[in-house]
Write a structure and sequence with these properties.
Radius of gyration: 28 Å
Shape: elongated
Strand order of the largest sheet: 1-2
Distance between the termini: 91 Å
Length: 412
Amino acid sequence: MATNLALSDVVGYESCVIPGEPTLTEPDPAPEQRSRRLSRGKAWRQRSEATSDDGPVRWYQRDFHVGRVISLETIMTFSQQMSSFIEAGIPIVEALDIAKEETSSEPMKTVIDNIRDSIERGSSFTDAVAAQGSVFPAFYRAMLRSADYTGNLDVVLNQAAGYLERDISARAQVKSALTYPLVVVFVAFIAIIAMSIFVLPRFSTLYRSVGAKLPLPTRMLLGITDFFTSFWWLILFGLIAILALGYLTIGGNRRKAQRDALIQRLPIFGPLVKLISVERFCRMLAALTHAGVPIPEGIGVAADSTNNTIFAGKIDDVREALLRGASLSDPLRETGLFPNTAQQMINIGERTGALSVQLSKAANYYEREVSGRIKRATDLFEPLVILVIGLVVGFVAVAQVSAMYSVFSQIR
């Protein structure tokens, strides 16, 4: 069942309320006015993330999501329930009461109460969810804003639940693949530390008392051991300094742009994150264009759903080009964000008038591509970790055995 919501929290004005203002289906004679409304909508999004029902969000809550104890599984279940209730025609307030009774998470019950109170005070469902801050992921809140255009809140909630389910499945896949290598790394790290503190110093004393000339691998190993035992405090200070520097440069939500830029430059994770953003963008824009939302407004909401500041910033340039009368495919190509396959699909959809269909096909294609890349990356990580651990253990064994042979040969 479609649920109509207000448009003011996305583009900054009330639809069909102010006389003389263009609606979503009417042509806008003043692109400058539309641009100002888009800017006001962006300012609203920033304010909604900086405040909550309990007042301004504290600095550590903005940076680190302190106090977020609601799992993605709980949010996914809530989304599926609300989608089913709204589709069945149950009013939102009553649906929230049912969802509260069904959940076993006390923090989620508090969040549902806050959402219900906000709606009873006149807020839309999107506003009420956005006021909960970091409880709901950023792409989730952006997807809900698309319901203010389409009016299909049940459909959008179901799509958001699907995204959460895929995210949870991908995280479970990665955790499953990394469990064994991480256990091996942890055990090897503890073993190396124990050897450096308790075992190797005794061998060092033995070798020095004999006065034998040690081979290069043994001298390197003893040098590393002496450094760890003598300057452990310097190593600890260095680790703390690295963490502090990392926070000052790319840590927290306020430095997300720098963090996104760094991630995109990484060899394996950068292309993967880029494909995830393309898939989310195409999926969301397909739903919006299918519902008849104008493309300049639709790409703004779709870009927000990627939760990627680099992606959203370049899409803002595309939106400005559309307001000046450009086509969609050319500005998207100039961003350098979209692979050739996506560019061709969007271009074909724009020329044939089936843009939403081509965007859905592109989203399905890149969803399969993302799943395949995640599987290949996790499959590659396990043997890589085992290889590194094997090299370390092999180096220690070679250093010890070669030292023993050297000492025995010199004693003879």
